[in-house]
Amino acid sequence: MADDVPRDARDPRPPRQAVPTGREPPHNAELERAVLAALLDGRSPVAIQKVRPILEHPLSFYVRDHRMVYLACLELDDDGQPIDMHGVADLLSRYKFQAVLDKLRQQQLLLESDQLDAMGRARLKALWRREGADLTEAYEDSALAAIGGFSALGDLSNVVGPVSAIERNATLLIDHYRKRKLITRLTAIADRAFRTPDSFDKLLDEGNQTLLDLGRGLSAATIHSIETVVDETLDTIVDRQNNPDQGIKTGIADLDEKLMALRPGGLYIIAARPGVGKTSFALKIMASIVSREGSDYRGLFVSLEVDRKDLLKKLVSAEGGIDFRKIEEGRLDHDEMTTLAGTLQRLKTWRMDLMDVTDLTVHGLRALVKRRQLEMGGGLHLVVLDYLQLLNGTRADMNEHEKVSEISRILKTLSMELKIPVVALSQMNRDSEKGAGAVSRPPKLADLRGSGAIEQDADAVIFLHRVDAGDGEKNEDGPDTARKIKVIVAKNRFGPQGDLDMNFFPAKMRFEMAAHERDGGPDRAPERKERFRQEPNEGEDVF
To answer: What is the pTM of this model?
Structure first.
């Protein structure tokens, strides 16, 4: 090229992609040429339709000249015109080189501000739409001249690039593009670590957020034909028919009947007012799953409120039937110490991990869970979080509604990404305590504290409601030996709603199913009471 040609015309590399390490960012120029050659061949009108969902914009390519050629291909496709070497050459010959550079620079700025990949097709199309000022009549000012003229396009089209391999090649190209984004984003964070007074935890949260952003939507944008979905669904149904015990049972029979087990990818919310027994209920579910004979399920219990040793004391109390206060006060007799030792030995065999932390963001939790899943080689099957509102949001200035909405959405995304159920405990607002007399009213979905997003994202919402609160019931074992708890399935995306009765023994941190009526279960109770009030029938033995 002549010396008076702008430097950008002599250097085909992108002007803003330098990496501080001195190494060139990941790219494959020959692979880019192969994709463009298949497009410029012109004999396959569907080639651009195969590539465009993968390579959505010109910056998917690394070499500047290749970006310009692909931009022309996109514009021809937007106008409904066939794509071949002659059509691309004609368009670039009328396109002012400086105008094309400006459009590529605008896209680069949007990429650096993390906006480019979030744009839909209509907004992307506007980025390279030609205006009158973008046209030139002087060939030497055109984009075609800048890339080397018609002969350069001819050389490009002569590269071996079969249309049959264009999707595979495009997928390999987008992998290089994502690596370049990863390097750029993480390099910026590393650079800040040299210069900023921000804490390590803040920078780590930003790094986790970066990885989450880069990983979001990699496979979610695929369109599936109904034929494919029918076949996949049939395979799933047949597999379930042959293996009916799929899913993770909670160990509470009446609850499993409604939920049909905890589904992979499901978010389950357990909500109650303080003191009702949320943590003990969640521990019962976890214990039932990880201690089941012949099961290889492994669970992670994350507590933001209770120390891990106190969690274990609760487990020991419930599993060994030992008074929790005696454990706390060190007043165990010989028999109880023997029971304690046996229970602890049994707990050592459980496939269960405990984590206690007081200051954790939702992205930090997500990173920890994903890391644990990698460490276990995919062997993590359940996560329990106690409790949702104690997680921190990504920004300190978020209000409660924004924070809880973000947390619930990321927990749902996490469960779907790892294909495991996530059980999150939640507080309820004080309105749920209002009711007639001393007994609070049954809770409603609107009582979930923080945001309606919890209700929206959850696959099931389960309330624990104490129905004997304040009634002063006593029995031969002393006051408040057992608390009557109604477990209310208020939302169930894949099954019926309803409730079941349980007893909570706070002294031993234990939940047990309430005894059913002998003549057919709790549903028969109203019928029996009504019959009791009726006068005896003629000839009926009243004794």
So the answer is: 0.58
